[in-house]
Design brief:
TIM Barrel; 385 residues; 15 helices; three-stranded parallel beta sheet
């Protein structure tokens, strides 16, 4: 006997349920209700309908490496623990030898994507960025996807080269750049921009970089930083603005809601993120962004257990193995920043919750390797190393 939808989602979400069932686009009021209803399970149920309609039980992951080439930055964002400051991380900028050394650390791993972002360091010259991309692109003769530089970095690069944003992107693409990561705007709110990161691009400037990227055929990823001073209205507005931009450009590959961690920032008084907040933002992103194929749960910020739950709350992507992620410091410490899952444990993380792990490349093409994991195998304990 089928369970009545109202029992599954609750009476307050039935109008949204009908829209989801019919494929109708949700509006701003729907988004606010999804954020404010106490029925998180109902929100997750709705998001899972969309997730399974698109991807079934498949959950994607990528073998990737992160390189944060400098932490020197002149933007002084209040939410950031990464940039060099008194009482915080010591300043650094990697030369090409150091970048190559880090790339060589993982030559034994069949990495398909290198993700590079850094601070806005006015000492770095235009050629530095071109050499950086060339080095990464050449690091693996078999090929690697270079995903690098937020919109804020792109503007800085163009300024250092005294060229237009379009020319800077063309030069970077010629050097081997394959896509732009999300980030750089955090949340599309003029109020939050002025309060927390006023020295960075504003929303319209960020969108202009995205439009130029789309014009050149350069794919981009999207993000939303939540859990700081933003309101529910600003979250919904951000998602709808991103949706409208995707309607216009169709060049975004994935949305990754990013959980704010206040440790070692100027916002340390803000409470730690909760599983409720993480799951709700993933689910609402899945429901509002009807023109995005993929929603990612970034396990380093959300934790492994929450990411496992998120695979039933709208997320179809568990990100990747990741190495040396330095943007969010664990417990405010500035020492060892190695954060990675083994391939075996990534597979286990996904399978433990009844999903099907699928390795992908950066464009979501499935990768099949000759390393099957036998049924009934015994895996190591699921830990982050």
């Amino acid at each position: 006997m089928a369970i009545a939808p109202e029992r599954l989602v609750g009476s307050d979400l039935m109008d949204i349920y009908r829209k989801v069932e019919s494929g109708e686009r949700l509006n701003h009021e729907d988004g606010l209700l999804l954020y404010r209803t106490p029925n998180l399970t109902g929100v997750g149920y709705l998001a899972n309908i969309v997730r399974e309609r698109r991807h079934g039980a498949k959950t994607y992951y990528v073998r990737n490496q992160h390189i944060n080439y400098t932490n020197i930055c002149n933007k002084f964002c209040k939410f950031c623990s990464f940039y060099a400051k008194k009482g915080g991380p010591a300043p650094y900028e990697m030369d090409m030898a150091e970048v190559k050394r880090r790339l060589d650390w993982h030559k034994d791993i069949p990495i398909t994507e290198v993700h590079m972002v850094g601070g806005i360091n006015p000492r770095l010259k235009y050629d530095y960025y071109l050499d950086l991309v060339r080095l990464v692109a050449q690091s693996r003769p078999e090929g690697v996807h270079v995903k690098a530089f937020t919109a804020v970095e792109i503007v800085q690069i163009a300024q250092m080269g005294k060229v237009t944003i379009e020319q800077a992107l063309r030069d970077l693409m010629d050097a081997g750049l394959d896509s732009l990561p999300g980030g750089g705007i955090e949340i599309l709110s003029d109020r939050v921009h002025q309060e927390l990161f006023g020295k960075k691009l504003n929303g319209e400037e960020w969108k202009e970089v995205a439009r130029i990227s789309a014009k050149l055929g350069l794919p981009q990823y999207a993000t939303m930083l939540y859990g700081h001073i933003e309101t529910d209205e600003e979250r919904v507005d951000h998602l709808i603005q991103i949706r409208e931009l995707q309607d216009e450009t169709a060049h975004f590959l994935t949305m990754t809601p990013l959980s704010f961690h206040p440790e070692a920032t100027e916002l340390e008084n803000i409470s730690q993120p909760t599983a409720d907040t993480d799951l709700r933002n993933i689910a609402v992103s899945r429901l509002l962004l009807d023109n995005f194929d993929h929603i990612k749960s970034f396990w380093i910020m959300n934790t492994v257990p929450v990411t496992q739950m998120a695979l039933w709350y709208g997320a179809d992507d568990a990100d990747g193995l990741v190495h040396e992620y330095e943007i969010t410091y664990k417990d405010g410490e500035f020492g060892n920043k190695s954060q990675a899952l083994t391939h075996e444990n990534m597979v286990r993380m996904i399978e433990e919750v009844g999903r099907i792990p699928v390795e992908r490349d950066s464009f979501y093409n499935e990768i099949v390797r000759e390393e099957p994991v036998a049924a009934g195998r015994t895996l190591k304990p699921l830990t982050v190393v």
